[in-house]
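note to self: dont lose this again. the chain is below, predicted strucutre after it. 284 aa total, dont forget to put it in the shared folder this time
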Amino acid sequence: MTFDDERIRHLTGDSERTSRILIVGLGSGGFPVLQHIAMSGWRRFALVDPDTLDAKNLVKHPALRSDIGRHKVDIAADWLADRIPGCEVETYRQPIEEIDGHQLRRLTEESDYVVSATDSNAVRHFVNDLCITTTSPMSLGLVHRGGTGGTVLTYRPESTGCYACLESVAEGLDGLPSDTDLPVTGLEQEMVYGRGLKDYAAAGLSADIGLVAALHAQLTVAELLTLETGGTANLPQLEASWLAVRIRFPDTWNWHVDEIRLPPIDGCVSCGKSVAPAATRNSA
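---
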């Protein structure tokens, strides 16, 4: 049995989806992004994630209880093999920053698109810098503390701002979701101050993560189709490169998406552009 995408070709077009996609992070955000991309017809992947599935992950991750203890890249590879017979999957069970430099450059240059879905800000910057160095197009998604909102970005080399550009201007744009929207929880206080875990943060609902992941996947699919075919009539490229997703405040729901055109920022520490047009913002 082969993968049948006939029912979505009115959106994706008749051309075969041939891009090889490198995905960094197969957690509760990255795994759904992979699933949506695969169900849209792509079948060539390289997957990077050092983590194994813990029982505590099941409150957010779509894997099965029988998968506990397995590497997340192996869980994803099995899902792909079952869903799309004949798919090509390359897996890496170590942190991306620990992959040998020559191998990492080969891995990136042999991929047509990079998806950054890690929950580590340091790794986001590592992937961002890697894509700048190799002029690789990239999408990035993250969910803010407590699931109050999220950020989705596409980086188009030589055209849009990178993740470091986004961080440099985010605090200057009022009303965007951030990690400070939710007051510090009791469990966070216990973990951070009582146990000394500096990177612990309150999680959001699986539905919060799924909402941001779906937008991340939609943007990625649109970017891939633009790269492969120039876009399709019914699924055009998004003009904006940054989606700031508001889900709720601590005391009220507030579904809202800001579409922001983020240019390369003057003096960016990563992409180092010399021209800085102002970011333009549309709300939806």
